[in-house]
Amino acid sequence: MPVAEHKFKHIVILTGAGISAESGLGTFRDVDGLWTKVNLEDVATPEALARNPDFVHEFYNARRKDLLTAEPNDGHRALARLEKESSGRVLVVTQNVDVLHEKAGSENVIHMHGEMLKTRCDECQVVYDWPGDLTSRTPCPECAHEGAMRPHVVLFGEMPFEMGAIYGALAQCDLFISIGTSGNVYPAAGFVEEVRRGGRAHTVELNLEPSEGATLFAECINGPATEVVPAYVERILGAPS
Ligand code: BV8
User: Measuring from atom 21 of ligand 1, which residue has the nearest CA?
Assistant: First the structure.
């Protein structure tokens, strides 16, 4: 595929649950979002995991099953196309714990909130590919410790992954695109301000509707990801797919 010359040399793309919505995976804060059905303090904090491990494992076991059958959509595919055809570097920083960017062909992806198809032993820190269920008694295959296996996701109050690499990319980027995120969760919601502090990047929000941080972006385009993301990628690459 020919490489399309364009003016952006370092593109950083932040994605949230909205880019996976049209793949059938629920979002968190929309009308029927996950956090409207279950209290995040009861399932997505280290305290909840310690207090009621099997309840938390059941919550993630159900969501893991949904991930196994989900397929990427035209929004994911457009970002994979951008990475392949762009003359500049493209990095996807996703808040999502699904693998739809990778399934669509993106290779340069950082999962800042972890990955739900992986499990970590909090005793020996080994991380496993784990498509199956977990319980509070699942033994670690490595250290045999029972009760320390947990989804390899970042719970509220825990440090997101690869923050150094992310802040380094934000400092270098000349185009920052935010897709399908409500701008409620930090530190991800603060990335656009981090980029603006650098003073030279173009900032774009592609979202179904204006997010909490919409006014911080130089450009906002509202619509479903399967429409607005391919259209924006075509604009950057200058040629229809
Ligand atoms: C941290 C993984 C320190 C698990 C998630 C008190 C105590 C402790 C912490 C805090 C506190 N108060 C504030 C904090 C910080 C906290 C936070 O921000 N809380 C919020 C609720 C106020 N953050 C943390 O705890 C983080 N850690 O701060 O550590 C630190 C600080 C700086 C630097 C280093 C360390 C950890 C946060 C990570 C928590 N884990 N997920 C799991 O998935 O179960 S967060 C969860 O929310 C998901 O990852 C999700 O992706 C993320 C963000 O949500 P969105 O993706 O934006 O989804 P949402 O539903 O909100 O929005 C969807 C959007 O899509 C909407 O705008 C909608 O319009 C749009 N949309 C819908 N359909 C479409 C669409 N767009 C396009 N097309 C469509 N079809």
Answer: 185
Cα dihedral 91/96/99/101 (nearest 10): -40
Closest CA to 91 of 159, 151, 4, 167: 167
Query: 1-25+72-113+160-241 adopts what CATH topology?
Result: Rossmann fold (3.40.50)
How high is the pLDDT of residue 241?
A: 46
What are the boundaries of each domain within the chain? 1-25+72-113+160-241, 26-69+115-153
Check whether domain 26-69+115-153 has CATH 3.30.1600.10, yes or no: yes
Ligand 1 pocket by Cβ (under 6 Å): 16-18, 21-22, 27-30, 33, 44, 95-97, 113, 153-160, 163, 180-182, 184-187, 207-209, 211, 224-225
At 214 the three-state DSSP class reads helix
Closest to 60 measured CA to CA, from 120, 140, 103, 105 = 120
Distance 197 CA to ligand 1 centre (A): 22
CA of 238 to the centre of ligand 1 (A): 33
Paired tokens of 145: 């410790």
Give the pLDDT means over successive 10-residue stretches in the chain (241 positions): 70 98 91 87 96 95 93 98 94 98 98 98 97 96 95 98 98 97 96 94 97 96 98 84 46
In this chain, the answer to whether the domains covering 1-25+72-113+160-241 and 26-69+115-153 adopt an identical fold is: no
Using the mean position of ligand 1's atoms as its centre, give its distance from the Cα of residue 92 in Å: 16
